[in-house]
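Hi everyone, sorry if this is the wrong subforum. Our group has a chain we'd like a structural model of before ordering constructs, and none of us has done structure prediction before. Sequence below.
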Amino acid sequence: MKRYNLKIFLWDVLLICAEIFFQIAGFVFKIFRQHPLAYTALFYLFITMAFCYYPILDHWSAGFIMMSLPLAVLSGLTAACYLLIKKQKIVAATGFIWVLLAFPLIKRMVGISNGEMKFENVSSLKVLSFNGECFDEKHKTDEHWSKLQADIACFQEYSPNKDIESKYANNVVKLTKFDKKGLIGLAMFSQYPILKQYSKVWDRGNQPNINGYLCADIAYKNDTVRVVNVHLWSMGVRINLAIDALKKGHIKTFAVELADSFGRLKEGFEKRDEQMREVESYVSGSKYPVIICGDFNETPFGYSYGKLKLSFKNAFEEAGQGLGFTLNRQPYFARIDQQFVSNDWHVESCKTISSVDFSDHFPVMAKYILKKSLTKAPALVAIK
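Answer:
Right subforum, don't worry. Here is the predicted structure as tokens:
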């Protein structure tokens, strides 16, 4: 008898819950039907923001969603204002709260540092990351080379260069054949001894194998630091061809180029996810302070960026100023060259050197200080 009563009770609870659910769903649908675009915009903002904070969806579609965050914030803010005018105050307030919660993510685009913070009697480690595009000769000068001086220099699309190699005592170079441009690849130069190294170039099938990573353990003063130079999958998106076709009124060509760009972006998200997993295997749980830098071929709202942000700090976010765009070609408004560090480091400064313009990328220079060197031991007093 008790068992029968329990079944009836559970069935009644289930019916009540179902009734409540359908009432709420009906209410939401009724409001949604009145303002479908506004509600869709707010829902999309929430999804985009959630992925950027914690990229849990291991799928290429997550890359597209995360990349659209600035547009999602703008449309979400517009939707919240519209719903407020329509006296949907609770939903509008929720929308405004979501927009405010998105501001820490917007910091990925805009550096708000007050300038370089100096510490007395503490030296910093100067790290350069630069996609040199085989060091095209068209604008290169001695002044350019002087701006590229660093303690550790990481190059992508590197080709043998005596001007650079003569300035460093230690190096790791991984090159491959690249059509008429000869040898090209990754290089890491250091003023400090390189104790251990590992490198890999990823196979791109019928395309030039220019993507890969270098991992080196470097003796830095009394410590060992792990530096990783990465060049993630290059998409080769031809935005300029699509824009030119649109300007000329060639709609069919524009549509073809747009579809091609979509396919390349999709492939890029998939490949970079795989590659970043491999890179992370060399830095996750490292007993040494870590620096990861290079050409990520992805915006700050990309999947690889979001995954690294869960464990590492981005140097530009910590000490950058302005927009820090690193792409010296269409689309110019992108920062795809990054430097990430473990919590062992204090970021003193991070700058995009836009005056060095002989490549299709601008160099990124950052200065780091080991946090433990900022902690001064108390003076010992002899007791008589």
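For your construct planning: Confidence is low (pLDDT under 50) at residues 377-384. The first strand starts at residue 111 and ends at 112.
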